[in-house]
Amino acid sequence: MERKGPFVAAYLSRLKHTIDRALAQYPRVLAFRVDLRLPADQSLPDRTDDHGVISRFTGSFKAKVRHCVFRAIVTTHSVST
C-alpha cells in the first residue's frame, strides 16, 4: 500500500471523538471510508478538478441508499399483508 500522510493529529483526534460520541448514543453504528479514484491515464473533463466530484458522488450515493430503503419498506409491507 502506498504511504499516505502525514496524518493530521488534530483531525484524527476529532474523528475519534466523533466516533466515540456516536457509539455512546447509538449502539449500532456503521462507518466506512470511500476513496474516489479517477483514471490517471485518461483525459478527464475540467469539472473533475473541483470539489464537485465529491458532491456528485455523495448525492448519487444518498439517492441509492434512499432507493434501497424505499424498496425494503415496500417489500416488507407487501410480504406482511
Fold and architecture overview:
By secondary structure, this protein is mainly alpha-helical. The protein has one domain. 57% of the residues lie in helices and 0% in strands. The chain has helices spanning 9-25, 52-80. It is flat, with a radius of gyration of 19 Å. The model has no long low-confidence stretch (mean pLDDT 82).
Short structural summary:
The protein has helices spanning 9-25, 52-80. It is mainly α and 81 residues long.
Main sheet summary: none
Sketch the topology as an H/E string, one letter per element: HH
In helices, the fraction of residues equals 55-70%
How many structurally independent domains? 1
Mean pLDDT: 82
Poorly predicted spans: none
What's the quaternary structure here?
Answer: single chain
Kindly estimate the percentage of residues that lie in beta strands according to DSSP: under 5%
The number of distinct helices, counting runs of at least 4 residues, comes to: 2
Structural class: mainly alpha
End-to-end distance: 51 Å
* Shape descriptor: flat
Radius of gyration: 19 Å
